[in-house]
Amino acid sequence: MTPSTGPTVMGIDVIMAASVLSAIATFAVLVAIYAATTVRDPMAKRVKALNERREQLKAGIVASTNKRRKTISNRNEMADKVRGLLSSLKMLQDSQVQKAQAKLMQAGVRSKDMAFVVIFARFVLPVVLGIGAILLVYVIDYFPTWGAWKKYALVAGTLLLAYKAPDLWLKNKIDKRTHAIRKGLPDALDLLVICAEAGLTVDAAFGRVARELGKAYPELGDEFALTSIELGFLTDRRLAFENLAKRIDLDSVRGVVTTMIQTEKYGTPLASALRVLSAEFRNERMMRAEEKAARLPAIMTVPLILFILPVLFIVILGPAACSINDALLSGQ
User: Which residues contact 87 (CB under 8 A, 6 or more apart)?
Assistant: First the structure.
């Protein structure tokens, strides 16, 4: 192997270092272009599903009532089997089921039978994945160079991750849904103020807001539509607002619910109270945006040090280093 004849700085080949940094920068640019060109519209999937449903209705391809009943009965049978298995293993507790159902409601899953599936997954996944990890590590010896501690850590980590996987899935769905609802809540309150000042009742106002915001914020529109339906048929309207607070784990929504209950109970003006809440939520949203902007310099420090400063040093000091190296070589 012939030694490098290019200019060097502190024993490092300048041309090689510039080539590596250029390759890294090119890869980063390609990744950024790919991420920018593959951004998906969150409403595109929903609009596509609605168009497909419209085409099916036009063509007359609609599932029959018997088929729907059969599907529902199959789901109920599966849920009953899972419930029976958990009951036989004495793993089914009322508090655990209620907690899982509350989490599913916050995640936007309306089926209460999914709670039994989540509890069943907590039991099955560690067994299946744990046995697979044990066979892979100890029986097949897929990692022969690993020590005993690494093998034990892999098996233990697999068991822990398999047990926490359903909870992590639920938490991820809840966080995404809560963020989407928090984003559209100030606009929803503004529309509620307009509907209240126009003379609409509370349930009609919720239904109108659900129709208007359903396209921009489908999660919030879904919750408001369900609240409007509950306000129409529940005997106690307070229960409908409490159900809304249970389905959405947000302090701002609980504040709206408290305001609604107080206006229903004491007859205070709804529009003025909602206007104050809307202003507070908008200020809160602006403060969150300012907080993210204030964190941006600290977040950009690492990319600045790793990718921008080395290239800048090479551009500034590279010609000077090459000139000094040439002068030293000519002097020798």
Answer: none
How far, in Å, CA of 211 to CA of 188, rounded? 11
Task: Give the separation between CA 79 and CA 81, rounded to whole angstroms.
Answer: 5
Measured in degrees and rounded to the nearest 5, phi and psi for residue 12 equal -110, 130
**What is the pLDDT, as a whole number, of residue 61?**
46
Judge contact between 279 and 189, C-beta under 8 A: no
Tokens standing for 7? 């200019």
pLDDT by residue (tens digit) across 308-317? Answer: 888 888 888 8
Distance from the first to the final alpha carbon of the chain: 25
Question: String of b and e for 51-87 (b: at least 16 CB within 10 Å)?
Answer: eeeeeeeeeeeeeeeeeeeeeeeeeeeebeebbeebe
φ, ψ dihedrals at 42, nearest 5°: -65, -20
In three-state secondary structure terms, 300 is: coil
CA pair distance 238, 252, nearest whole angstrom: 17
Residue 215 pLDDT: 83
Cβ(311)–Cβ(25) under 8 Å? yes
Nearest C-alpha neighbor of 183 from the set 276, 98, 284: 284
C-alpha 24/C-alpha 179 separation (Å) is 34
What single-letter DSSP state applies at residue 235? S
